[in-house]
Amino acid sequence: MKFYIELVKGLWKENPIFRLLLGMCPTLAVTTSLQNGLGMGVATLFVLIGSNIVISMLRNIIPDKVRIPCYIVVIATFVTVIDLSMAAFTPELHKSLGIFIPLIVVNCIILGRAEAFASKNRVFVSIADAIGMGLGFTLSLAILGSLREVLGAGTITLWGPSPNLQIKTFLTANPAVLMLLPPGGFMTLGLVLGFMNYMQDLKAKRQGKTFEPPVLNGCRHCIIACGQSTEKPEDM
Amino acid sequence: MKETLRLILTLTIISCISGLLLAFVNDKTKDKIAQIKSDAKVAAMNSVLPTHNNDPVKDAFIPTGVNSNVIFYVAKEDGKFVGAAFDTSTMSGFSGYIGVMVGVNANNEISAIQILSQNETPGLGANITKTSFLNQFTNMAIPADSTIKVKKDGGQVEQITGATISSRAVSEAISSGLKVFEANKGEITK
Prior knowledge:
The structure holds two protein chains of two kinds. Chain A is an all-alpha fold. Chain A is 56% helix and 3% strand. Chain A has helices spanning 2-9, 24-30, 34-57, 67-89, 91-97, 108-116, 123-152, 182-206; strands spanning 155-157, 166-168. A two-stranded antiparallel sheet of chain A has the order 1-2. The radius of gyration of chain A is 19 Å and the shape is globular. Chain B is an alpha+beta fold. Chain B contains four helices and five strands; from the N terminus they run H-E-E-E-E-H-E-H-H. Chain B is globular and about 75 Å long. The N and C termini of chain B lie far apart (74 Å). Classes of the chains: A mainly alpha, B alpha+beta. The interface between A and B is medium-sized, with 35 and 29 residues.
């Protein structure tokens, strides 16, 4: 049951992009097409599962004072393994994602999950957390990627240059290229976030309440006593 | 003291294990990656060269004396010069390095070009790898000053909308290679 709860929370309630607003740099940069969004999401999912397993296993061994360097070494190792494997076995996808694969190292979702979850939970639930967060990230990137691709290029590309996997829309002839440019990324993300907040307000209103944003987990290293944490803050 | 030692030891051990794992993965994948790269290079070379029946890699010409490391892969049909391919590069892309394979033929024209490697923005600059952009260079006459320019700069290449910098960088890379080609033309075409 705990496995299931940790798994689904990443999809909506604690969705890394739409709820926690983490990992904005790759989000804005790679979501120029559905294919890039999916590829980036899946690569991140693998790194996240690997790093969560290892960090959860080592959580009692790593001293607190060097935990960040240790996490980064573990994450960087997994990213390099994925980078090399993709270059060797899926050269096409590796080529289209270019520089963004090595940049997974500095994706704050991965360090965030290591710090807030894997470092204080058992391996089994950490895997659930990684899968949930990874899938949430992948889905969000896919949504943003397909929106921007439809508006900016007029196509939906599932995979590669093959025309069978590409759907053309009436926008193909006159696409709004702006949506593929950096401002388009901000606009799409902002509109989707606004829409999601509106939906949440609407849902709360129907139940006769006002919407309260959920209190986020991860109080372990916070020194501000907000009264929300049941754990004692550690000395810094 | 004891605590400091523990910090150093933990990080060292984790780094060592990571290093070992990376060495192992690198060892398993490096041949395959090198193979994919050289296959891509030979495929790009053949796609920009006119029909030939020699092995251009064997007949490669390396210019001496010129301050450049461009290698010319010379294509011959029955021992007669039909074209040459060379890979050239520039650092002035939107994300730095762009490698281009350029083919020239015996009629003083660019026969075709291929992008070997680039890290341009997906969806914008990365469109320099699309055929609609690359086809403009097919059978383009080499100008007298061997400089290719985009239309915005008064040249002949239609730049990609929203990716003028990438288009300009490709033109620059080709121009720098063409200059070496023109300087060594006598040697290469003989």
